[in-house]
Specification:
2 copies of one chain form a homodimer. By secondary structure, chain A is of the alpha/beta class. Chain A has one domain: TIM Barrel (Alpha-Beta Barrel), CATH 3.20.20.70. Helices cover about 40% and strands about 15% of the residues of chain A. The longest helix of chain A has 17 residues. Chain A is globular. The relative contact order of chain A is 0.14. At the A-B interface, helix 5, helix 8, helix 9, helix 10 and helix 13 of A face helix 5, helix 8, helix 9, helix 10 and helix 13 of B.
């Protein structure tokens, strides 16, 4: 079985916890290394197997990820997959040397966002994917490579994004040999029909089993968009505990889709996630304690699973 | 054009604001009549055309609806549709006499809930639908009749509900001559695939244009379920401003799906709602002021529409 198949089995849904990366990069306060390791431990005990745990950046510019080597070791000790972002050549070299299981490169869907976000062209961003793939291929542990296309459903700088453009970039990333191609609704512009259309188009190019989706719940479409992606054959879905992870220029906007609610969606759609919701909800204690200023979202944490706790109560005129 | 076609045009989506009924029946505090009339005025100016404004009950048992006659008049003056619940024979007579545009009867999908909620059998509840239809047919203004099936996707008292049972009850309600048959996920058990399966089955019995959906966002599936209903041909969808309307035995659980977010979903799916989102969001001021202890939900109110306000901001490593 290839490394890719072992990390992303084609016959099941893989839910990627990105809260430890996406959820920490904008917060004033962030958890201690010990608290993050406890988070990894408890969420993996709940059944989550895949964690995006940071970015390879100089510790000065991202102190919340300065402990990334320890986090990677902790994932290995727990027997779960570690993933990290790389943003430049130096990061790619460091990532491959770190033993991280999956290396994620970000490619913007628009030149405007590419320049604003990473001060480089789309072509240069695809070049970094290509370089990362080559470095990974030469590494003993053969990390999986993942190209995430930001603003794939609309760009807050340049507006609408043509699906042809997204398909072109996805194709270019796939040609570099990247194992996984991700489509990201970075700023929450998409509706479910656009998600379905885009996922089906890109899946036809790169294969549905190599396609991932990264959704933000900025405008409340997160679960509807996740359902549309799953219906389109996508089996790699990002989410974060409590919906952690915001958008720096949408004050108060929710972040990623909520992992706890996504688990309920998947189970209701007949996918076995292997995740125990009650235990997963319990892990919210850690960010709630470590990042008290961050709002945690999610309906499952409020309502709980359907069942006994709901019984024997009186209803008045409820419809 | 029939009364039904004028209230529910088959060629468009009708969004029913139920916050003034469902949203008020469990609150300790409720808005003054003047505030509710302001709410109707401002939400209708935003483009919402259909309002469920109360239940026909003795004023003692439901003081928040004691002003229902004034609310019906206000709707008429504003040129929008008024709808109200009836829970017994007396209520049916009062409703027909009140001039309300639409009369809603509730039928439970399970005997256990029917007894717990209204101390009557399902057969007796269908009997009230039948009586209401006959009374409405004799009335000069020919009110539309609507049978809402509660717990249609799962019951907090008796658990799973067989689709055959829901279809049987929906068929019985349709046979009474009720204009609209509604399916309600009263306690938020459904996922989108169950919604699609159920809506398609019931639509095949009663016709998609006569089918309505009433969703609670208890477990965060609301928008995914609304998308599934729209994809199944449902064109009558309930929602409430700010997601008002709770469940008396799920503390902290969200209520109805959020009208503001549903409008965005519909527009993203290509349905023209005729609703101005910015003005709609502004109406939240009224419940926020009148019912300060009630939490208002919704992402659109936080994030706003995609567009100019999003531009010219710097992103760091956003995916």
């Amino acid at each position: 079985m290839s490394r890719l198949d072992s990390i992303y089995p084609a016959d099941r849904v893989t839910l990627r916890e990105v809260g430890l990366r996406d959820g920490l990069q904008l917060t004033g306060r962030y958890p201690t290394t010990a608290a993050k390791q406890d988070w990894l431990g408890r969420e993996s005990q709940a059944g989550v197997r895949h964690f995006e745990i940071g970015s390879f950046l100089p510790g000065r510019s991202a102190p919340q990820f300065a402990d990334i080597a320890e986090m990677i070791r902790t994932c290995r000790d727990l027997g779960v997959t570690s993933a990290a972002l790389v943003l430049n050549d130096r990061g790619a070299v460091d990532a491959v040397g770190s033993g991280v299981d999956e290396i994620v490169c970000v490619v913007s869907a628009t030149e405007e966002h590419s320049q604003a976000n990473m001060r480089r062209s789309i072509a240069d961003a695809v070049g970094l994917v290509s370089k990362t793939v080559r470095l990974a291929a030469d590494a003993d542990h053969q990390p999986v490579t993942h190209a995430g296309i930001a603003m794939a459903f609309g760009c807050s700088i340049s507006g609408d994004v043509a699906l042809d453009q997204v398909a072109r970039i996805a194709g270019a990333c796939a040609e570099t040999g990247a194992d996984v191609i991700g489509l990201a609704d970075t700023v929450g512009y998409a509706g479910p029909d656009q998600i379905a259309l885009s996922c089906e188009r890109v899946a036809s190019l790169v294969g549905a089993t190599r396609l991932g989706i990264h959704l933000h719940d900025t405008r409340g479409m997160g679960m509807a968009n996740a359902a549309a992606a799953l219906d389109s054959g996508v089996r790699i879905v990002d989410a974060s505990l409590g919906g952690l992870g915001g958008c720096p220029f949408a004050p108060g906007a929710t972040g990623n889709i909520v992992m706890e609610d996504l688990v309920f969606l998947c189970e209701r759609k007949g996918f076995e996630t292997g995740i125990e919701l009650d235990r997963l909800v319990g892990v919210r204690e850690i960010p709630a304690t470590e990042m008290p200023e961050e709002q945690l979202y999610g309906a499952m944490a409020r309502a709980g699973l359907p069942g006994a706790s709901w019984r024997a109560a009186s209803l008045q005129n409820q419809r």
